[in-house]
Write a structure and sequence with these properties.
271 residues, alpha/beta, four-stranded parallel beta sheet, 8 strands
Amino acid sequence: MKKLIVFAVSDSSGETAMQVAKTACSQFKNIEIEYERYPFITTDSILNGILNLAEKKKAIIFHTLVDTKLSNRVVEFTKTKGLRNFDCIQKPLQLISDQTDEHPEKITGLVHDLNENYFDRIAAMEFAVANDDGKNPQNLAQADIVILGVSRTSKTPLSLYLANKNLKVANVPIGPETQLPDEIWSINKNKIFGLTNSVEALKKIREARMLSYGLDVDTPYSNTQHIEAELAYARKLYNKIGCLNINVYDKSIEETATIIMESLNIDTREK
């Protein structure tokens, strides 16, 4: 059976995008559909993380983003990456505007279709945004999960995926030259998860990253010896903390998330 992954991305609850997606998908009985909802998306940084995750999973994106800039970002990204998207709000806004010669307010959240998990999910997404990439280390104690990893080990996409499961996640970059927050040592080691990857994979990912910015790939950031030193530091740190070490080289975001949730005895079923 063919499988389709559908993202519902919204600056509100995401209920509208989800219902449009489900209504369309209900007509295809021979396809296995997996839905992921990403509500309350109002910033470029969090949207970029979701788009990168969509690229990895080859997802179709249904979106209701009132902010034209964010909506256009989805359209441009999917066009560049060969993905598909359906804008559930901008076209209706334009249709009404053309008919009435009135301009839409462009204010997010004027309609809320609230469900049982809405506020928990929003709180988790907000927490992930506020505590991404080592920001606000004073909040680490409030996290359900703390993710550690060197650069480009998919910390942010993993945090977003787990936040979509109503889990408060903080992620912290590590490395020989990076100051580790003191708060780490007061956290239950079972809540901390350390990510690694292969040297070859990280080198390839980092070189592609540099090229995307129009920069020279021959830098310490993508140097083999430098990456080896970073990974050696990470393994030593994880052993010192006593946390679970996960090599993400051959794992999808879902697989890594499942390992983490099962380690914490958290229900891995879709909420």
